[in-house]
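Hi everyone,

Forwarding the result from last night's run.
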Amino acid sequence: MNIGIILDGVLTNLEQFQFDYGSKFYFGQETILRNPRGYQVEEIFYKHGNALQEARCQDFWDIYYEYYLSEEKPRAFTAEVLKSLKEHGFRIYLFCTRIYSSKLEPEKIKRLTKLWLIRHGIYFDFLIFSDIINIDLIKKYNIDLFVDHNPKTIFQLSMYIPVVCFHAKYNELARGENVYRVYSWYDFYTKLDEIYQTEFTVSR
């Protein structure tokens, strides 16, 4: 079986990174964390009751993006669970949209991403960089199950395959018959049988 996994927001806790470093970045700028359910930095932090300009969001990532790519830690037990999935015959496809949303050189982003995965011992069979995650891409790689955090992508893909939603405040409304919400990697591990309704048993 082929499992597709979006890198940011699933392997990492992108939500908490934006809370932590966004609070620091906007500290002393008459800005507050107004909307904890916001998806992007500019949705989370407000100044004088108005949404921050998009340029201010870009300023934030211009400062912190390379640090995020290099230093942000993976979620607990990411490497452990993915290794065990591989041992049980799953093929792991990591999907990444990073090179399409930064001023950093695409090749540098790819290099930092691969080094980060190696440094943290995160197993994968394929690493795919794409500007968009959609059904056509999922069909191209014969993905049987997708793991994501983006509510828009979750809604779209769940019309075609089972989708696991890694919980965040901004995706609380991403629910449906083909959507399975999880709160950690071992919670995901536990729910695999439910998703596929097979006799597949993982070692815990």
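Confidence is low (pLDDT under 50) at residues 198-204.

Cheers,
N.
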